[in-house]
């Protein structure tokens, strides 16, 4: 089973120094190692640090992007009770 995070735990990692976690469709992604390579820029990613960025993600990317980077960036999932 993957590591489970509450939304409060994710919110504590809102900067590159603290891990820059973002949530996409219930998955938790640690973006610190990727911010400087992100083709869309570091700034836009930093703005959604600690938050659910599903809406923003699907606005600019397709499923292939998520599949490709999942093995590298996904560190777990949001706990069920935290999604309610
Ligand atoms: C797991 C998280 C993310 C990954 C792996 C990722 C990866 C990428 C990649 C590979 C591209 C190049 C374009 C493409 O191949 O489709 C891109 C572009 C972009 N990304 Fe992300 N991204 C992520 C999250 C985000 C988030 C949360 C935002 C917004 C808050 C964002 C905003 C953008 C923008 C604005 C572009 C440029 C689109 C364009 O030039 O048309 N990305 N991203």
UniProtKB/TrEMBL annotation:
It comes from the Eukaryota. GO terms for molecular function: heme binding; metal ion binding. Residues 2-79 form the Cytochrome b5 heme-binding domain. GO terms for cellular component: membrane. Gene3D superfamilies: Cytochrome b5-like heme/steroid binding domain (3.10.120.10). Pfam families: Cyt-b5. Keywords: Heme, Iron, Metal-binding. PANTHER family: CYTOCHROME B5, CYTOCHROME B5 A. Belongs to the cytochrome b5 family. This is Cytochrome b5.
